[in-house]
Amino acid sequence: MTGAHGKLVSALALLATLLSAGRLGAALDRWSPIGPYGGGVNALAAAPGVAGLVYAGTDTAGVWKSRDGGESWHPARVGLPAGASIRRLAIGGRSGQTVYAASRFAFYASEDGGRRWTRRSVPPAILPEGLADSGFLALAASESAPRTVYLSYRGGATGSGGGLLRSTDGGGSWQALDDAIPPGLPPIFPAIVVAPTLQATADTVYLAAGRGRILRSTDGGLRWQLGATLPGEPYGVELAVDPRAAATLYAGWDDQVARSTDGGASWSEPVAVAPPGEELRLVADLAISPSGAIYFALNRYVGGNEWYDGGSSKFEGQLFRSADQGASWARLAATDAAAALAVDRAAPDRLYAGVSRIGILRSVDGGDSWRKSNHGLKAAAVCTVAPDPRHRGLLYIAAGICAPTFDLLGGNQDLGFLKGGPDLPWVPANRGVRVAKRVLEPHGVVPDPRTPATLYAATGQGLFKSANGGGQFTPVRGGLESILEAVLAVGVDPEDPSRLYAVGYKLGTPVCGGFCPVAPIFAAARSNDAGASWHRLSFGPDALGYAAHGLEGFEWVFDPAGSRVLYLVRSQGTLQKSEDWGTSWGPVPLHLGSETFFARHLAIDPTTPSTLYAVAQGQSSPSTVIKSTDGGHAWRRTVRGLPQAAAVRDLAHDPRRPATLYAATSQGIFVSENGGGEWAALAGGLAGLDVLAVRPDSVDPATLYAATAGGGGLFALTRSGR
Fold first, then answer.
1. d(Cα 633, Cα 696) in Å, to the nearest integer?
2. Three-class SS state of 481
3. pLDDT by residue (tens digit) across 266-276?
4. What are phi and psi of 6, to 5 degrees?
5. Which element (helix H / strand E) includes 272?
6. Which is nearest to 527 in space by CA: 497, 500, 504, 493?
7. How far is CA 647 from CA 85, 384, 405, 689, in A?
8. R_g of the chain, CA atoms, integer Å
9. pLDDT exceeds 70 at position 547
10. Are 89 and 55 in contact (CB under 8 A)?
11. 670-712 residue pLDDT tens
């Protein structure tokens, strides 16, 4: 009976573990993606002959596929690099089985409906040296010959070179078509379209060149005719061919549309799709339905927070429709910044819009109404994750923009803050934080460890506080706004949560006294009364300085022993330590031999505070892990088992097992069970994914969360036997 009883107890314990893991939606000893849904979509391609089959190229997570008209989405990215940013998509033929994708620097082909992708190289003899300075521009494929594909590029050190390529074997080999282009045109082609046809004849292809030049070929690109120049000689032109008539072509730029019924030989007067306005407007895409309806997407500038080496411009996406061949237009919707349109030609009332943040909008009534269509689309970058200190499986994340971007529309991926978890729906937590005319720069949420439902949010617009679990945020003032315009990190003293710390910047002219563009000047502040009042912290001669090249990362780290000790981590500066709650500070040098390191993150042993672990960046090597057992006086590398080329992003301790340490790296998640002495991939380690942050659940540290820059968003895992 004893043996049977023991087996029963073991079985019940295992069942309890499995049920416990299941409640969180975190698989036992296996990483599972838990969202959120959304993420920027750059490209769309709908199969011409199969209703409901559509592909989406995402900004950070490769290609996704829907077979049910956008009701649900599934990854279709085997063979693509983890976190691939897909800029262009095209379908060869009508069945949707032959698909092509282009990132900025790479071209991929799939002949099985996206189940597997193969990178197709373009020989250096065809692509001139210098492509890496620009990249691929446009992509189109033949409907009558599925393996015929057209690709344009821009390259050269000055960005002035470029060309046009054709492949008739799915990218296996390429032919340069530049010699056939009429002389005198700049060889840069931002748009390519192939006229739809069911006949096995040579393709009719259209090119948009610089200064409003449009070219036409009726023999698959072997010979070209230069048509009439578009009025105003615009740049940034998008093209669309009427699927019912190969010679009927529409060109869109800014907020203008022109029509040609003779293959570009002549053009109508341009028509404005939107009422007049002085703000910048950029065409995003054009699409034409077999019913004759024409759809136009543009982005309208609404504001920004730019400075000379960063900042972001805020755009509003607008969708329009014309039912009279472009003579007049009606606005259908205002949405997030738009990038792509696609019409389901097998079900013409169904159309899709690829947008920033939420990913995809869908209409099933020809554009009269639109709704979010991103179920299953886990394509958003997750930058930070903060588990709630009291509720198991409740998380606060910052998502969308994890690094400064210089892409004009890239900043509009700002999902911001969300609240949810493995078994909870993700809901925005931006009320009171998001401003209509600025991109939301979400740097992280920090829960108050002792006051339920109290959160602090660090943003590019300052510091905010919520007293209802993120339902509503209000600005934290008390003089902080005179010290910091933007808050990059906030710290809450775990022993006394009324003691707050903030670090960030104000814009100024630190170098040339007002005679040059502004730059961020870093500063830090402390509050002893939960944010009611603030005073600036002094770092003596080793001040925090200013940003010469982009923003830096900061982090507040508190000594777990409950002493007065705290650290300020600066990713491109000296690690700072205070032993009097921040009144005075001193540097903690990070030297290994003759090399000096900067600390990007710091982890302190929960039971032995003199043992420190740092994610350290050297002058000429990827960020690595170093360890000190004497409070930071001497350091040594502790990297055995970590991939040599992997950049370490973050560290976290298991609070119940001090010798257990987790490392987030550019090649997945690793664990050490002996204080960094040796590392191993954890449950496959999310191999190949760039993991930005790792955190154990505050209530049940056996459950871990990993935030990735692309490839699935947030992942969860529950370790057995913990």
1. 29
2. helix
3. 999 999 999 98
4. -65, -40
5. strand 271-272
6. 500
7. 20, 17, 20, 12
8. 28
9. yes
10. yes
11. 999 999 999 999 998 898 899 999 999 999 999 999 999 887 8
pLDDT class for 161, splitting at 50, 70, 90? confident
Q: How many CB atoms lie within 10 A of CB 705?
A: 26
> Hey, what long-range contacts does 107-111 have (CB within 8 A, 24 or more apart)?
107/136, 107/139, 107/151, 107/171, 108/79, 108/80, 109/149, 109/170, 109/171, 110/76, 110/79, 111/170
Predicted confidence at residue 514, as pLDDT, reads 57
CA terminus-to-terminus distance, the chain: 28
In this predicted structure, the answer to whether residue 67 has a pLDDT above a threshold of 60 is: yes
Which tokens belong to 254? 């800014």
Q: What is the spatial distance between Cα 351 and Cα 258, in angstroms, rounded to a whole number?
A: 22
Torsion sign across C-alpha atoms 82, 116, 141, 65: negative
Distance, CA of 170 to CA of 111 (rounded, Å): 9
pLDDT in tens, 626-650: 999 999 999 999 999 999 889 999 9
Q: Which residues contact 275 (CB under 8 A, 6 or more apart)?
A: none
- Name the β-bridge partners of 566: 558, 578
Q: Is the pLDDT of residue 619 over 90?
A: no
Backbone φ/ψ region at 7: left (φ over 0), alpha (ψ -120 to 50), beta: alpha
List b or e across 87-98, with b for residues whose CB sees 16 or more CB atoms inside 10 angstroms: bbbbbbbbebbb
The secondary structure of 386-453 as a DSSP string is EE-SSSTT-EEEEES--S---STTGGGG--EEEEEETTEEEEE--TTT--TTS---EEEEEE-SSSTT
Calpha distance 281→656 (Å, rounded): 55
d(CA 697, CA 91): 43
Label residue 22 left, alpha or beta by phi (over 0 means left) and psi (-120 to 50 means alpha). Answer: alpha
Is residue 76 within 8 Å of residue 63, measured between CB atoms?
A: yes
CA–CA distance, 678 with 662 (Å, rounded to integer): 11
* Greater model confidence, 129 or 105: 105
- Give mean pLDDT, residues 582-592: 92
Secondary element (H or E) of residue 13? helix 2-23
SS3 call for 646: coil
Whole-number Å distance between alpha carbons of 280 and 272: 14
Q: Which residue has the tokens 């700049």?
A: 186
Contacts of 593 by beta carbon, 8 Å cutoff, 6+ apart: none
The 3-class SS string of 437-469 reads CCCCCEEEEEECCCCCCCEEEEECCEEEEECCC
CA distance 319 to 339: 11
Residue 337 DSSP code: P
Residues ≥6 apart with Cβ < 8 Å to 396: 385, 386, 388, 417, 418, 419, 429, 445, 447, 455, 470
Which tokens belong to 310? Answer: 């960063």
pLDDT score recorded for residue 7: 38
Instruction: Please enumerate in sequence order all residues whose Cβ is within 8 A of that of 562, keeping only pairs 6 or more positions apart, or say none.
Output: 494, 495
Both structure tokens of 660: 């257990």
Matching residue, tokens 């740049």: 235
C-alpha 618/C-alpha 599 separation (Å) is: 9
- pLDDT at position 1 is 39
pLDDT, position 408: 62
- Can you tell me the distance from the alpha carbon of 369 to that of 559, in angstroms, rounded to the nearest whole number? 54
Tell me which amino acid residue 722 is.
R
Which two three-digit tokens encode residue 217? 């070929």
For the entire predicted model, the pTM comes to: 0.92
Residue with tokens 């740097």: 443
Q: What confidence score (pLDDT) does residue 605 get?
A: 95
Average pLDDT of the chain to the nearest whole number: 90
Residue 41 main-chain phi, psi, to 5 deg: -115, 120
